[in-house]
Amino acid sequence: MVATAEPNQYINMAKHFFGASHPLFSAFGINLDDVGKGVSTMSIPFNEDLCDRSGSIHRGVIVTLLDTNCGLAIFSRLGDMRPIATIDLRVDFIKQPEPGDAIYSEVECYAVQDAIAYVRGRALSRSGNELLATAAGSFAVGTRGPSFDSAVKPQEQE
Amino acid sequence: MSQASLSEDRHPHLPATDLNQVQRDILDKTPFVGFLGLTVSLSERAFSCHMTFREEHIGNPLLRTFHGGIVASLGETSAALYLVHELNLDDEPQCSSMTMDYLRPAFAGQLRAQPRIVRSGKRLVVVSVEIFLDARLVATGRYIYSRQSPRSQ
Q1: Is the pTM higher than 0.90?
Q2: Residue A106 belongs to what domain range?
Q3: Where in chain B are the domains?
Q4: Cβ contact (<8 Å) for B102 and A148?
Q5: What is the nearest CA distance from A31 to chain B, expressed in angstroms?
Q6: Which of A20, B34, B106, B113 has the lowest CB atom count within 10 Å?
Q7: For residues A84 and A143, what is the distance between their CA atoms, to the nearest angstrom?
């Protein structure tokens, strides 16, 4: 079920994932740090436009970063970029980031079964390496809509 | 931005005075809430938050849907605003956990979030939010708030 992929294929996936321009990724400054089979690390720099009233990155931004990161972790485990959609996502907020802190996140796609991909991950502060939030969720694989890359032909999609 | 939106024609029957100061501070002084671009609709019986699609909200550019994190943020902000009024809070409540169910694609358009309190206890408050695109339910969120002081202290 899980296709094998050359290491550089993950980088190609990431390029497709981020595309030439993605307005939300650009606004958030989402940066890919690392991607391997089923694992992905992304970060966002500190940005005062994305803060809460205490000057820390808003928890909604952390959720958005984690949800985004789930997508690439799943694609890298699948070995292709057939369409996916979030079924559910739980995020627990452990600690508020310090004002001025950048955030990074690590997500693992640990299983794909019956066209459902399962993920878990966490967000940490860039400066102190402190745990800020944990996430767990599931995604539908092979949903309607065009693929994110050319590796999947339309007739292969459900 | 939100303050200006409130006085626009969208809800002419809603004087801005219907929002209390804590709610206005959440709407007008939180940079990320400004990024979301929320408006509040208030009546005696109903409270809802609205968010109109902007390109910066996009999740899947091929389908043109709202990003799941943006939908979650709309829900959480609506829950916080609602709690401030319902529980007469003197500060923004701190969300300790959220669980989202995404039920249908949230295509570019205007989303409406409708919160309700499931349980208000001494320590914890549980809020459920239904999020609609036009008349269709596209997501539900469950948000847990702690009544303790902020966890960063």
Answers
A1: no
A2: 7-148
A3: 2-146
A4: no
A5: 16
A6: A20
A7: 6
